[in-house]
Amino acid sequence: MKFGYTSWLPETELVNKFMEALRNNKLVGTKCKKCGQKYLPPRAHCKCGSTDLEWFDAPNRGKIRTYTVVSFAPESMSKYAPYIVGVAEVEGGLSLMGQLTGVTPSTLRVGLPVQIVAHQPDMDRVVYKFKPT
Amino acid sequence: MPPKVGIVGVGHAKFGKRADATIRELAHEAVRPALEDSGLAIDDMDASVIGIAGEEFAMQGAPAAVVHDYVGMGNKPTYRVEAACATGSAAIRTAWALITSKLHDVVLVIGAETMTRVSSARATELMARAGDTRWEYPFGITFPGFYALMATAHMNEFGTTREQLSMVSVKNHKYGAMNPYAHLQREITLEEAVKSIVISHPLNLYDCCLISDGAAAAVMASEEKARQITDTPIWIKGLGAASDSMLIAERPTLTGLTGTRLAATKAYEMAGIHPSNVNIAEVHDCFTIAEIMAYEDLGFCEKGKGGKFIEEEQSYIGGKVPVNIDGGLKSKGHPLGATGVSMAVELVKQLRGEAGNRQVSGAQIGLSHNVGETGQFVFVHIFSR
Question: What is the second-level CATH architecture of the domain B138-210+237-384?
Answer without folding.
Answer: 3-Layer(aba) Sandwich (3.40)
